[in-house]
Design brief:
2 copies of one chain form a homodimer.
Chain A lengths: L3 E7 L2 E3 L2 H8 L7 E4 L6 E10 L4 E9 L6 E3 L2 H7 L5 E2 L8 E6 L4 E11 L2 E4 L1 H7 L6 E6 L6 E10 L6 E5 H7 L5 E6 L1
Parallel strand pairs in A: 1-13, 6-9, 7-9, 10-12
Antiparallel strand pairs in A: 1-14, 2-6, 3-4, 4-5, 4-8, 8-9, 10-13, 11-12, 11-14
Chain lengths: 191, 191
């Protein structure tokens, strides 16, 4: 297990700015903590929104807290096609000129002119983890996931190193399905 | 391009038996040719069905002809989750104890107790292609697809050799999205 990393699947989700939380859920609203996520400080919220694209809508999309400087919608490319929106493959936070959509909440709507992305596959590591794996922040590696019938090596995996992280690789639902990376799943980091 | 193979994405589709064509589209109905597919003799049809699972339905699913001995529904694992059905990763035709669903057509419905699968990724080859690539029928290979930000090596790719085939690798929409295998795309066969 020396070079094995936990692989977690990120389903579609939304990050919201303070301003957009107020528009969608009402003046004075704050996000309601439902469940901690694996990354310290990150949590799933009780609140949900509908993501509307020009082609279709996806209702009941989970919001992840805490609030962020800019709202961001992370979808799979399957979702992007369903919605009829462009979703470039980007690192979280890199939303300049990304896809557009409308968010609909119980108290209002927000037109996002950008913010829709497909998350670039990545590995969260603490500095100690990074040293153990022999990788650096921003380094691109490959990760091999062995499964019954869909063994896959994902290239273009970016390492992200921060003392506040917990060690885990994040892939989206398309990637998870393509590799049959279900249940408790570990990948092998290949440099 | 010596070891490069054309990569095509198969979207969700249905193959129907003669019996089920009659139930869904009426006594005396036959499949209406709309468009040839890359594999000789295979064609997309004008007819569509709704695939119903216990969780949700997917309307307007394309039928591929000609008729087959047993009906078969090929979905992505994203689709399988949407429908709420089990879809084992299988080669086409290997439907024993696979997933169940209901098919709804304009003239009737069919309860499939089995037939829902996620297609095992595969390469169609003629004997001459197989010789050129140095592979045999049923051989398992890997295929590397290079793309902007989602380079991927798919393992567990089964080679299928038949004089009636045209050379092409087939992956499903999850796999295509995971590798950003869009447009005219070629993969490198790795043995």
């Amino acid at each position: 297990m020396e070079n094995k990393i936990l692989v977690e699947t990120s389903a579609r989700h939304v990050h919201l700015s303070e301003e957009h939380i107020k528009v969608l859920f009402g003046e004075g609203a704050t996000l309601t903590h439902k469940k901690d996520l694996s990354q310290p400080g990150q949590f799933a919220c009780e609140e949900r929104v509908t993501v509307e694209g020009p082609k279709k809508s996806i209702p009941n999309v989970i919001i992840l807290g805490p609030a962020r400087p800019a709202s961001q919608v992370e979808v799979s490319l399957t979702d992007a096609r369903t919605l009829g929106v462009k979703a470039p493959v980007r690192e979280s936070g890199d939303v300049c000129c990304s896809g557009a959509c409308k968010l609909v909440g119980p108290c209002g709507e927000v037109e996002l002119t950008e913010g829709v992305i497909a998350a670039k596959r990545h590995i969260h590591l603490t500095p100690a983890d990074a040293e153990k794996f022999g990788v650096e922040d921003k380094q691109i590696v490959s990760v091999k996931i062995e499964s019954d019938g869909r063994t896959t090596i994902f290239g273009d995996v970016v390492c992200r190193v921060n003392p506040n992280f917990a060690p885990a690789m994040h892939i989206d639902t398309d990637e998870s399905n393509a590799a049959a990376a279900f249940g408790e799943c570990y990948g092998e980091i290949i440099k």
